[in-house]
Write a structure and sequence with these properties.
- The protein is an all-alpha fold and about 450 residues long.
- Helix content is about 80%, strand content about 0%.
- The protein has helices spanning about 10-20, 25-40, 40-75, 80-110, 110-115, 120-135, 140-155, 160-180, 190-215, 230-265, 265-285, 285-305, 310-335, 335-345, 350-380, 385-410, 415-420, 420-440.
- Helix 8 (about 160-180) packs antiparallel against helix 9 (about 190-215).
- The longest helix has about 35 residues, at about 40-75.
């Protein structure tokens, strides 16, 4: 277990492994998009649409696991090891029930839902083609985030790195094989991307399970002890997680609406937006790691009755997040053609050239997100998840009104539409800093 303190060393030891684990869905979406970029612009554009939709589905499971992670970290601070196991079992059970409901919706409800959102028949057909196979991965995705929440909550995130790297490698192999038809496998196009992602998640899950059975330090938790269902604990996690889930659905849902509005402008504009989204996913990985790490740190310190450390640790984590983000973002944003060519190399680089103005806006987005995302999760770590939901809901209303006015009313460029992200995270940052200093989070009990 990594000792909890307010040093940058402790922050990095906890946050760095989580950067990969918490961004697993981002990596899968990135790999799928890279291969489909080489297949065709229609498939690449469709992946931008259906990719955001599946991120919303994944966020629902991830949001519930965040509630479990916060409680597990609190029990760790209290040195209540058996309580960690009880929390995990309740979380895992709920995740499986939730996965079944999401699978049913993707199998039988998405054709109607997508018809309401998409104008292009080609984008509509390709999206459903991908989701037919991608939907099976939800069971392994939801169970996987429960395992990640466990090891993140007990401040032992090291294995998450290896498991995520294995998942990415498996996904890349099967994407290459199933999209283009290599190694004797069928050429399935965009459907192959959906199938390869589901296979990768399944492999990563079973490897993680094997690791847990071999992990001697996990035995005191009694993770797989058979007993009565702890409904009170499920209710507590549900109460804590519901606003987190709603926050993610509201946040990513606004992004989904954004893509739908852009899709109305044309398939080319959607392809450009998907390219920017893909770069955004890569460059936001450090922030997701630091944001998830600060959940464990904040909740752990409160469990140790060190509430005075909450603001300093959140502020330090935000500084580390900003510096790391700038180090990896500046070269990509300022020189996208040179940096992205080895990844996306094509004779026609016009898509990257057309996206250049938006890349400049993206730098401002990454700066505000790298700080705002950490403070947002710092507040969640205190247990004030309902406050976060109210704030984010208000921010999303302004976000969507802005996007509608810019795109539909004033017919401004994509760069102006993307600038909504800066206003969104800037507003959240200002309110969260004030709340951590002056809010009533000290009175919350888990």
């Amino acid at each position: 277990m990594i000792p909890l303190n307010t040093s940058y060393k402790s922050i990095l030891k906890i946050s760095f492994p989580i950067m990969l684990g918490s961004a697993a869905q981002n990596l899968i979406a990135l790999i799928d998009s890279v291969f489909l970029y080489h297949l065709g612009e229609i498939e690449f554009a469709a992946m931008g649409f259906v990719g955001v939709f599946y991120l919303i589905i994944a966020a629902i499971g991830y949001g519930f696991s965040k509630g479990g992670q916060i409680i597990i970290a609190r029990r760790l601070g209290e040195k209540n090891l058996s309580g960690i196991g009880r929390c995990f079992r309740a979380m895992f059970l709920f995740e499986m029930v939730l996965a079944l409901a999401m699978f049913a919706f993707m199998q039988w409800g998405c054709d109607w839902f997508f018809s309401l959102m998409v104008d292009s028949k080609l984008i509509y057909a390709k999206s459903l083609e991908s989701l037919e196979y991608r939907s099976w991965g939800v069971f392994f995705s939801y169970s996987g985030v429960a395992l990640i929440a466990l090891y993140t909550g007990v401040a032992r995130p090291g294995f998450i790195i290896l498991d995520t790297v294995i998942m990415a490698a498996v996904n890349a192999f099967f994407c290459y094989a199933l999209i283009f038809g290599h190694f004797g496998m069928p050429a399935m196009g965009i459907a192959g991307a959906g199938l390869s992602s589901s296979i990768a998640e399944a492999v990563a899950f079973f490897i993680f399970i094997a690791y847990i059975f071999l992990d001697k330090k996990a035995k005191p938790y009694a993770l797989f002890k058979i007993g009565n269902i702890n409904w009170d604990l499920i209710k507590l996690q549900y109460h804590l997680s519901l606003p987190i889930i709603a926050q993610m659905v509201v946040g990513l849902g606004s992004w989904f609406v954004f893509f739908s509005v852009v899709e109305n402008l044309g398939e080319r504009e959607l392809a450009i937006t998907n390219l920017v989204r893909m770069v955004y996913l890569i460059l936001s990985i450090p922030t997701w790691g630091f944001a998830s790490g600060v959940n464990t740190l904040v909740s752990g310190f409160i469990g140790m009755r060190k509430r005075q450390a909450v603001f300093p640790i959140t502020f330090k984590t935000a500084k580390a997040s900003l510096l790391t983000t700038l180090l990896i973002s500046l070269p990509v944003v300022l020189f996208p053609q040179q940096i992205l060519y080895p990844l996306l190399g094509k004779t026609d680089m016009s898509l990257i050239a057309d996206a250049q103005p938006i890349f400049y806006v993206l730098l401002g987005i990454l700066i505000t997100f790298s700080i705002g995302g950490v403070f947002f999760n710092g507040v969640a770590g205190t247990g004030a998840t309902w406050f976060g939901l109210k704030l984010q809901s208000l921010a999303v209303v302004f976000y969507l009104v802005y996007v509608f006015l810019v795109v539909e009313v004033f017919k401004m460029s994509l760069a102006w539409a993307w600038a909504a992200e800066i206003l969104y995270w800037g507003f959240i940052l200002a309110v969260m800093v004030f709340y951590l200093k002056k809010g009533q989070w000290h009175q919350l009990r888990l």
